[in-house]
């Protein structure tokens, strides 16, 4: 059942062109396809095997001749023609499909009455018979016929070349895409949509029409998406010399979408969540995510579409690279340090956890059962870290040289991660063979570091040692290091082997163990290690709390300043946990409380960084650091620390709150920073659950003119114990019940509550008339969010597990991709105590015994149960 990377073979046939004709109808949709197929070699006698799923074959012609039923075979997933010509030939098929019954949201389906498609990875085969693999690149023309009243807008890839009307109230449009592309980039949209248009002139003078297509009622929520697109287009020209290549770029927002968005050539289809926004409906984070996802999909036009993947094992070739590109873009558009911290947080909470789970895989997996299960944080986010490693090793200019060579060599091709690595190596005349291990080896590298100061010689040595698991080999790891003097300033760094000196130096760790020595170090320094998180590893270096507080106050690298604060908080929390487990009274270390106070009072520190530094590590992240997750203990102790910090610095929180509360709304970084700070302050204050703090939140809730403040206030209020909570929830619901994306927030805020009745509340919300399991955003807003609420989801009685499994089984038939995501929370079952393990195992066993399990769910659950 599994497919292996080592089994890759070139296709036996190529498809030069495909002419598609869609007749969209409420009952059955007819898809007529005409392909020109060319055998790879002359005189080959292999059968032609096309993929096709949930299709009803109505007609089949080869070179214009209808085929007899004994000339071909059809099974559930193939169309096989044993004998075909040895020269190029045409194949014509007509199939019937029913998009209106498609709840899996892959292939052609309906969303809010409109037709749309999602073909990556293997959805095109649910539209027509095809060689549905990325190394088969064809030229597409697409004609769409549909009722003109219901579906006035008909879109597909490329340029609109012809259109007309039929006498029966239907109309048609024909599109032609001049660029050959793999089938996963095909797209079609038909519906009643409003266009928010603009234009962009490329630096070489091409005028590009930009179109954002949305449901008519959302016409006033498109401008930010449009601006983001233009910014991304400009940035890619400036940073990478990459220009857009068609005369039109379309983005369509749909409400039912499994993922974030899809980079179909010239016609991106987006989850509405990553397009629509207005200050009163979308938070600052929503704005930032929209800009990032729009950029991500745009960047795919070169990294993904012009140069695509040879096979799906190479997914990180386009995704890791494109995530790295969108991260770099956001770093330059906003704040590099803030963005880096946010990205590392995601990597460490989700990807490091995936590495610890039975679904652990290298960024280039060796096998899969269902490809959709490998659109993971490992392939995407760790993949982006690996691309960042090239840049760290080669420098920005060297990286750019590598990119240039990559496009020069491979434009128009379907290639591999090795091709990318070779371009980087060749362009820089550097040996990157050891670097392949980042693609081969799963897991998070661990590096232990020891530092020694020699007062006599005035040298400081760092010994770095990689922990190499059995059967693996040493990674090639760049580690950025600085040394702080007693005054908190960076010392000039000079390696024993070098004459030049610097404040941050990159140590290239290639061996299992290496020692580097810095000379002319006048005093015992405090090392700042792995600055800006220069590699996706775990670095162990034992430190006293004083030292962490010192780095937290002084490190010139903002990332490491934040990191020191997180490590300090973690130490404090784990020590308190030991006390709690030993039934001792809890007392917050004044050193930590003071370190927090210093941050609160620091007038130099940028507001967004400050807000991040005032945020404790999550229960999920803390749990990951333990051999066995202490569910109740972590929850109790973390709550205690938050409460204590709220009390200790009550006046300072209030001061910060008031100082930042009156900044008028704007989408500028400085105004965003004010909102971040004041909302962190509000959350601390509301921990005290007094009449005064609740009044503050209520006031903000009713008076705010933007969603950031309104949602923040609401999320404070849901954790209060008086009537304010119900009043606010009702009010929010009434205000926003017509806006699905905002209503999602209403569900989420409740699912995130830390009050003990959260599970019962989630159960009740499942019955709410606005809950709809078929809509992925709504399902995620309640259930995926709840499953991240560690203490409430992992209730000791296992009721939440049972509920989750019930949902997974329902989704298994409705939408296997979402089912598989939802079942993944159980992946970590062995990291919990025996009682919880047994409860989760029971649910996993129940799921795997279910008849008709999708490949998606089967793969995750079977790996989860079998792994040690
Ligand atoms: N390529 C899309 C994106 O990044 C994601 C599509 C995922 N689709 C899927 N079926 N897993 O940017
Ligand atoms: Zn992508």
DSSP summary, beta strand count: 33
What is the count of DSSP helices, taking H or I runs of 4+ residues? 26
**Major sheet: order of its strands?**
6-5-9-3-2-12-15-14
- Note the gap between the termini: 21 Å
Assign the structural class, choosing from mainly alpha, mainly beta, alpha/beta, alpha+beta, or little secondary structure: alpha+beta
Please characterize this protein's 3D structure.
This protein is of the alpha+beta class and 868 residues long. The strands form ten sheets. An eight-stranded mixed beta sheet has the order 6-5-9-3-2-12-15-14, with no helix packed on it. A five-stranded mixed beta sheet has the order 17-18-19-21-20, covered by helices on one side. A four-stranded mixed beta sheet has the order 31-26-25-33, with no helix packed on it. The longest helix has 34 residues, at 377-410. The protein is globular and about 85 Å long. The model has no long low-confidence stretch (mean pLDDT 98). The structure holds arginine and zinc ion. Arginine binds at residues 120-121, 258-259, 261-263, 296, 319, 372, 375.
Structural features:
globular; five-stranded mixed β-sheet; binds zinc ion; alpha+beta; 26 helices; 868 residues; 21% strand; eight-stranded mixed β-sheet; binds arginine
Topology diagram in text:
Layout: E1 3-4, E2 13-23, E3 29-39, E4 48-51, E5 56-62, E6 65-66, E7 73-74, E8 78-81, E9 89-97, E10 107-111, E11 114-118, E12 138-147, E13 153-156, E14 159-165, E15 170-181, E16 188-191, E17 194-201, E18 207-214, H1 223-240, E19 248-254, E20 261-262, E21 267-271, H2 284-299, E22 308-309, H3 315-333, H4 336-355, E23 367-368, H5 377-410, E24 414-415, H6 417-428, H7 437-440, E25 446-454, E26 459-467, E27 477-484, E28 493-494, E29 501-502, E30 505-509, E31 513-518, E32 526-529, E33 538-540, H8 545-554, H9 558-581, H10 590-601, H11 607-613, H12 619-624, H13 631-648, H14 650-661, H15 669-686, H16 691-703, H17 707-717, H18 724-736, H19 740-751, H20 758-766, H21 776-787, H22 790-793, H23 799-814, H24 816-823, H25 834-848, H26 855-866
Parallel strand pairs: 2-12, 18-19, 19-21, 22-24, 25-33
Antiparallel strand pairs: 1-23, 2-3, 3-9, 4-8, 5-6, 5-9, 7-8, 10-11, 12-15, 13-16, 14-15, 17-18, 20-21, 25-26, 26-31, 27-30, 27-32, 28-29
Helix pairs in contact: 1-2, 2-3, 3-4, 3-5, 4-5, 5-6, 8-9, 8-10, 9-13, 11-15, 14-15, 15-17, 16-17, 18-19, 19-21, 23-24, 23-25, 24-26, 25-26
The structure holds arginine and zinc ion.
């Amino acid at each position: 059942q599994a497919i292996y990377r080592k089994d890759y073979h070139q296709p036996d046939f190529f498809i030069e062109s495909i002419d598609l004709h869609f007749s969209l109808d409420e009952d059955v949709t007819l898809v007529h396809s005409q392909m020109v197929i060319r055998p790879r070699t002359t005189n080959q006698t292999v059968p032609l095997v096309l993929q096709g799923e949930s299709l009803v074959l109505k007609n089949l012609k080869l070179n214009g001749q209808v085929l007899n039923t004994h000339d071909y075979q059809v099974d559930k997933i193939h169309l096989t023609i044993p004998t075909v010509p040895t020269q190029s030939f045409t194949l014509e098929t007509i199939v019937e499909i029913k998009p209106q019954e498609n709840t899996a949201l892959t292939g052609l389906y309906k969303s809010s009455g409109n037709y749309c498609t999602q073909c990556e990875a293997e959805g095109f085969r649910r539209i027509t018979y095809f060689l549905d693999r990325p190394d088969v690149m064809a030229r597409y023309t697409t004609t769409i016929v549909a009722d003109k009243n219901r579906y006035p807008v008909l879109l597909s890839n490329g340029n609109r070349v012809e259109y007309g009307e039929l006498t029966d109230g239907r109309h048609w449009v024909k599109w032609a895409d001049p660029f050959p592309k793999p089938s996963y980039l095909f797209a079609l949209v038909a519906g009643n949509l409003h266009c928010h248009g603009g234009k962009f002139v490329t630096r070489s003078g091409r005028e590009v029409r930009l179109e954002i297509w949305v449901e008519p009622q959302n016409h006033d929520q498109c401008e930010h998406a449009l601006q983001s697109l233009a910014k991304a287009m400009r940035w890619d020209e400036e940073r990478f010399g990459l220009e857009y290549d068609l005369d039109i770029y379309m983005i369509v927002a749909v409400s039912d979408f499994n993922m974030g968005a899809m980079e179909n050539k010239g016609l991106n289809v987006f989850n509405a969540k990553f397009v629509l926004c207005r200050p009163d409906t979308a938070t600052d984070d929503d704005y930032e995510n929209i800009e990032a996802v729009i950029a991500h999909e745009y960047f795919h036009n070169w990294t993904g579409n012009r140069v695509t993947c040879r096979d799906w094992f190479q997914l990180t070739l386009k995704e890791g690279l494109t995530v790295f590109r969108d991260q770099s873009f956001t770093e330059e558009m906003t704040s590099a340090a803030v963005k880096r911290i946010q990205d590392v947080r995601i990597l460490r909470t989700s990807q490091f956890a995936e590495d610890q789970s039975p679904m652990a895989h290298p960024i280039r997996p060796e096998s899969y059962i269902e490809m959709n299960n490998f659109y993971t944080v490992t392939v995407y986010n760790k993949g982006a870290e690996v691309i960042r490693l090239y840049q760290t090793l080669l420098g920005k200019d060297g990286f750019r040289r590598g990119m240039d060579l990559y496009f020069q060599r491979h434009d128009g091709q379907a290639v591999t991660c090795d091709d990318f690595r070779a371009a980087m190596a060749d362009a820089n005349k550097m040996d990157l063979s050891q670097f392949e291990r980042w693609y081969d080896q799963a897991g998070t590298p661990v590096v232990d570091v020891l530092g020694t100061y020699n007062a006599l010689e005035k040298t400081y040595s760092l010994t770095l040692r990689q922990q190499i698991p059995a059967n693996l080999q040493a990674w090639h790891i760049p580690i950025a290091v600085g040394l702080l003097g007693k005054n908190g300033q960076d010392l000039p760094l000079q390696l024993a082997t070098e004459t030049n000196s610097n404040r941050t130096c990159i140590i290239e760790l290639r061996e299992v163990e290496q020692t580097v020595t810095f000379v002319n170090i006048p005093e015992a320094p405090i090392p700042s290690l792995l600055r800006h998180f220069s590699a996706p590893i775990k670095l162990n270096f034992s430190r006293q709390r004083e030292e962490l507080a010192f780095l937290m106050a002084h490190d010139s690298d903002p990332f490491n300043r934040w990191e020191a604060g997180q490590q300090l908080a973690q130490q404090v929390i784990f020590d308190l946990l030991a006390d709690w487990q030993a039934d001792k009274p809890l007392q917050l270390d004044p050193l930590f409380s003071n370190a927090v106070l210093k941050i609160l009072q620091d007038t130099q520190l940028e507001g967004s960084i400050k807000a991040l530094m005032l945020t404790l590590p999550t229960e999920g992240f803390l749990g990951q650091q333990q051999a066995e997750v202490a569910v109740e203990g972590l929850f109790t102790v973390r709550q205690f620390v938050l409460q204590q910090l709220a009390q200790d610095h009550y006046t300072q929180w209030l001061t910060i709150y008031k100082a930042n509360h009156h900044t008028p709304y704007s989408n500028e970084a400085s105004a965003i920073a004010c909102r971040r700070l004041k909302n962190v302050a509000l959350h601390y204050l509301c921990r005290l659950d007094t009449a005064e703090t609740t009044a503050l939140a209520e006031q903000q809730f009713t008076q705010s003119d933007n969603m950031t403040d309104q949602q923040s206030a609401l999320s404070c209020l849901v954790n209060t114990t008086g009537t304010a909570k119900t009043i606010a929830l009702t009010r929010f619901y009434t205000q926003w019940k017509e806006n699905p994306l905002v209503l999602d927030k209403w569900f989420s805020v409740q699912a995130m509550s830390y009050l003990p009745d959260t599970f019962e509340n989630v159960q009740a919300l499942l019955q709410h008339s606005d809950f709809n399991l078929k809509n992925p955003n709504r399902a995620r807003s309640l259930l995926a969010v709840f499953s991240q609420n560690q203490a409430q989801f992992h209730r000791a009685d296992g009721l939440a597990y049972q509920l989750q499994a019930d949902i997974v089984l329902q989704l298994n038939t409705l939408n296997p991709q979402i089912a598989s995501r939802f079942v993944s929370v159980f992946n970590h079952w062995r990291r919990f105590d025996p009682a919880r393990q047994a409860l989760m195992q029971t649910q996993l066993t129940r799921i795997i015994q279910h008849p008709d399990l999708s490949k998606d769910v089967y793969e995750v659950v079977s790996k989860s149960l079998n792994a040690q």
